[in-house]
Amino acid sequence: MSHAARTLLPSLTDIEQAAGIVYAGMAPTAQLCWPLLNQALGAEVWVKHENHAPTGAFKVRGGMVYLHHLARQQPQLSGVVSATRGNHGQSVGLAARRLGISATIVVPQGNSREKNAAMRALGVELIEHGSEFQESREYAQQLAAQQQLHMIPSLHRDLVAGVASYWMELFAAQPGLDVVLVPIGQGSGMCGAVAARNALGLSTRIIGVVSAHALAYKLSFEAGRKIESPVSTCIADGVACRVPDQASLEVLFSEVDEVVAVTDDEVMDAMKLAYIATHNVAEGAGACALAAAWQLRARLRGLKVGVTLSGGNVDHDVLARVLARAAAPADMLLAPAQVLPLTSLPQRRSA
User: Fold this and answer.
1) What domains, with CATH codes, occur in the chain?
2) How far is 239 from 260, CA to CA, in rounded Å?
């Protein structure tokens, strides 16, 4: 593992300390095994419900930890700024409000209206700039320099330590997981999974998941070097990354087994599948892990599989259109079928 990767990944002590900060502001989230998902995938599937976090997504954990340390390091801090497609911004907004720090958030034009409203409700100054995330991030960096604000990155050791607390919960509750599937945006979720797995000394395989319409991390993984790729996803905005982060790539290269891509249609099918099988709402990025599990179901059959429902912040009109779609994996569950108990599933084999 490279020095950059080692620097980014928190230790067991770091994660435990981060968890203490997180639990001062929220309870651990549930990991649940849903019979209909087991039936659909032919596997023992454990869903980590980060959609039940205070902001509806896993990012809140990282924001709590990052700003906790920042406020102590810079007690005279004038304010913070960051860029987001929504969940990171809500994380920053919630943590900043609790600490009495002003927060400015930059989002791309045409960003989710309901995510924007949620950020404003947390007291942030919201600015729409740029056509996609990278342009928003570059503008946020300009504002930081012009207004003497602290620029919160999308990826940092403290953010990863906070995110890793949810993977610690899942791995501690289900240490026998054969494989976990992890969406990759800028990489904090993936790095958190790696850090928690390594800290606990587990051998669980990690499969990264990207949008087929935002392939930067997959192309980089396959080439062994950083590759930018255009973004055109219409549903999975949380993984709409054009420029990969070099430090998270180093973790990806050395610690992740493979990276798969899911199309927008597959993501929408998974959103509907999640709703029918669990009656939980998943946003596009939040359904990527389940979409990948469905795509890989033949290989995953009989295994013990972890998927993260990493966020549920989808605009209501988008969700209505998704639920109205014909979706084979979801509609299949509504037909009469024999439900197999977990004990009758095939024995585990390597994915």
Assistant:
1) 3-58+157-332 (3.40.50.1100), 59-151 (3.40.50.1100)
2) 13
